[in-house]
Amino acid sequence: MKIGRYAVAAPWVAALGASLALAGPASATVYNLTYSGVVTSALDTTGEFGPGASLVGMSFVANVIYDDAKAGATYVGDVYYDNYSGYGAANPVTATILLNGVTRTFGATQGYDDRLDRTLQPGCTLNCTDVSFQQHAEDRFTKDGFYTLNYINLGGSSSDGALSGLAHTAPVFTNPPVDLYAYVNLFTQDTTTLAATHSAAVSVRIDSVTGGVPEPQTWALMVLGFGAAGATLRRRAARPG
Fold this sequence. Notes:
Elements: E1 2-3, E2 6-7, E3 30-44, E4 59-67, E5 74-77, E6 81-87, E7 93-99, E8 102-106, E9 110-117, E10 131-143, E11 146-158, E12 163-164, E13 172-173, E14 179-190, E15 196-211, H1 216-238
Antiparallel strand pairs: 1-2, 3-4, 3-15, 4-7, 5-6, 6-9, 7-8, 9-10, 10-11, 11-14, 12-13, 14-15
């Protein structure tokens, strides 16, 4: 199954590892990825995901949209390293998360897709089997006397894997990463008092990465639709028999 620039089959939908055909930068393919997992730690100081909510153990979903040929994006890489990044309209990575019924979207100001495969590094003598990837979407700005930095990191790493097709269009893991993760940070500070008006940090263990997800607008409507369907079922269940 093609999932963005990865191929995944159960139970990582069978491994972050089925083959994925390379697509050239001119293909301008937009990939949809869904990262699903469980919150492992959280410090939600200002109740961004529900006042007083205990987030640990809650399910987490992130829908990532990745454009492999974003106009204005910059590619930097060599035989074993690959980074594709952009700012503003040139950002190739955006993400929408769902946690405890709260949605957040990231990527208005910056994003990047980063790859490392030391198995391809010429003359490597240390940690030559390390491979990793990371997708990052960020909002960083100052407005009306407040500084905001919101971002999400999603990725994986392996000490015994391999990564083929290192070009930013289509990396393929031949072995699944031993660690898949997501990290979310929300922070807004009053530039005069330096008081934090919004503050949350959430770490997630990602259990699966899948593809074929609708665009974010459709995804959000689906979430609302599922909620409405659940409410209807609850009303039906509450009716006297």
